[in-house]
């Protein structure tokens, strides 16, 4: 299989710090890239599929704050961790309000780095599984959400009434239905839109750290707390706090969360000073909270405090009439991103897309469209450009795509199923890599970005598959 190492970019003008962080993250299994300043860091971001950025605040040429703004403008979901000295903690807090994921205060230990990096990457993975984006100017879109089905019409009516209010909202629905998109719409269409929108994925945070994540901590509160740090409630003051996967919060923490919601006040971990905040809370879950209550895994009083206004997002299979609108949106999106010119979707292919059950909802549709656009060699998307599981919807026995065709006569004469699968997968990998290189005119950097693997990983895979010859490894 193609390697799936996460790529981490370290941006710092101190050679020793770059070296130490690179050594640790490499040992932890990440593919590490380095940049000496923000200017070089932005250049690396444009040429590689980066999963996480760790950057210093104070640097020559382009500083960390500028890097943060520019990077998030091009990739809003990119997690960025700031490195700061004690004297610039206020600036780091400001960076969090602008969209940074977290910050490290010098000196930091390896466990703290490992913990924050792991949390950031897990949060991004969960967000990618859940979030979908829709520009507000496309046909059939309101509040940045695409759709005109009855379920979405009801959603728009609720958003109209509750967006500009301080009322707590609980969003429910399956994974991939766009719960974060609705939370963002509530914030963006309220009088709080100029204030912070702070999101926390409760499933990505270890249970023992959830309290300090939400409410912050004072210096010396626990081992490793070398300085005080505000929690997400403080960072969201005046704005909106979005707690995704609220059902994952430990029962013992739910009491403190309930008090913070009812009284708008709390204390940091290890602190005695009461902190008051003005925060509008939006929570989301794909779990049945009433079942969790029956199992004593969720407090009933917290549920009723969260469930002031309830919004249920329909699964994509419940709003099949919206699929053509979403297909058009993703076709435009990936034509632009992948520099393709696919003019549309053939009726038979659109029928299959509309008939499929979409267990992964909109996120699954987005992934299918990205792959189909990437490997489409015709003027329009055809049935054969779609995955096998979709082509089975109609009940017809359509042949698999060229990349998956297997000639049993070419398989090894000796060996069992495992050896046959290995040979078939090697051929599939070779075909996918070859087509990506062809699509990018032999540009290894851009091909790696399309395949969502590291450049180094692609080079190793090309060597393994015998694809190095005849390919000029272009960098630009």
Task: Please name the defining characteristics of this protein.
Helicase, Ruva Protein, domain 3; transcription regulation; activator; 19 helices; Response regulator of zinc sigma-54-dependent two-component system; sequence-specific DNA binding; alpha/beta; five-stranded parallel sheet; disordered C terminus; 44% helix; 4 domains; 476 residues; Rossmann fold; ATP binding; globular
Description:
By secondary structure, the chain is an alpha/beta fold. It has helices at residues 15-27, 38-47, 64-74, 89-98, 110-130, 150-162, 179-188, 210-215, 232-235, 251-263, 289-294, 300-306, 323-338, 347-355, 361-375, 388-391, 417-439, 444-451, 455-465; strands at residues 7-11, 31-35, 52-56, 80-84, 102-105, 141-142, 145-146, 169-172, 197-201, 240-244, 265-267, 274-276, 280-285, 309-312, 344-345, 380-381. The chain has four domains: 7-121, Rossmann fold (3-Layer(aba) Sandwich); 163-314, 3-Layer(aba) Sandwich (Rossmann fold), CATH 3.40.50.300; 317-404, Helicase, Ruva Protein, domain 3; 408-465, Arc Repressor Mutant, subunit A (Orthogonal Bundle), CATH 1.10.10. Helix content is 44%, strand content 13%. The longest helix has 23 residues, at 417-439. Residues 393-406 and 472-476 have low confidence and may be disordered. Keywords: Activator, ATP-binding, Cytoplasm, DNA-binding, Nucleotide-binding, Phosphoprotein, Transcription, Transcription regulation, Two-component regulatory system. GO terms for molecular function: ATP binding; sequence-specific DNA binding. It is found in: Cytoplasm.
